[in-house]
Design goal:
The chain is an alpha/beta fold. 50% of the residues lie in helices and 20% in strands. α2 crosses α7, α3 crosses α4 and α7 runs antiparallel to α8. The longest helix is centred in the N-terminal third of the chain and has 24 residues.
């Protein structure tokens, strides 16, 4: 059931016992300098293509105001700006270390007027109801402490007719592909990630959280529970990533 799956990922934490939100904040502060390198290395650069496909889902909407939740180092926010040219993009993230990297990138590109960042928790977004034409999350919902609450908050700040677009890692269904995926995700990534970032726990948490996060219709049901409709999902790259969309 969806609620059981939601509870499973909520119980997966980077460092063991304690509140997930604070542990996730600490983890991303710890790995922020290595995050972009590891993203490219782990996905062999395919994460850039995944983001492009997600952006295409939003293009017909022509959103003017976009909220990028769990914005991290700002890659998706920058890609949304370059492709969609909205009036403004707001990125929000728990981790100050990740936001420091995001602000540096935006400053280098001269986009300070087009993209702004705030530190905050997706469980209680500091925005008014019906503020955004689109809300996006790239590789972030599995880090929410309370997944259903996070979806309800994102739905709250969407305008009527606005779209939620979630890009999340997922596990392949094919057993042969899954064997190779598990070898890579459970052994190779933690080894490389631990060496590069100095935080082995963070890269053990990654495959554990992917395995536990709701997938397919279970994820779409969370969106429907939050009052969204026209839910849709598309698996990418042998099932290792999925795009989920819904409309308010």
């Amino acid at each position: 059931m969806t609620n059981d799956n939601g509870n499973r990922v909520e119980q997966v934490t980077p460092y063991g016992n304690g509140g997930k939100t604070e542990q996730v904040r600490q983890m991303f502060d710890s790995i922020a300098p290595a995050y972009d390198f590891m993203n490219r290395a782990m996905t062999l650069g395919i994460d850039i293509w995944w983001r492009r496909l997600a952006v295409k889902r939003l293009k017909p909407l022509e959103p003017k105001a976009i909220l990028d939740v769990a914005t991290g180092t700002g890659d998706f926010a920058i890609q949304l700006h370059d492709s969609l040219h909205p009036s403004h993009i707001t990125g929000i993230d728990l981790s100050q270390g990740m936001l420091d990297e995001a602000r540096r990138k935006v400053k280098e590109k001269g986009l300070e007027g087009a993209i702004s960042f705030e530190q905050g928790d997706c469980m209680a977004l500091p925005m008014q109801d019906g503020t955004f034409d689109a809300v996006t999350v790239a590789f972030g919902v599995r880090n929410f402490e309370h997944l259903q609450q996070g979806y309800e908050e994102m739905a709250r700040v969407l305008k009527p007719g606005g779209m939620l677009c979630v890009l999340e890692l997922s596990t392949p269904r094919n057993r042969v592909i899954r064997w190779f995926y598990d070898l890579y995700a459970l052994h190779i990534i933690p080894a490389i990630g631990g060496l590069k970032s100095g935080d082995k726990s963070a890269y053990r948490y990654l495959p554990q959280s992917i395995a536990a996060v709701p997938q397919g219709d279970d994820m779409l049901q969370l969106m429907r529970n939050a009052g969204l409709h026209d839910t849709c999902c598309k698996r990418l790259t042998l099932g290792t990533c999925t795009i989920y969309t819904a409309v308010k």
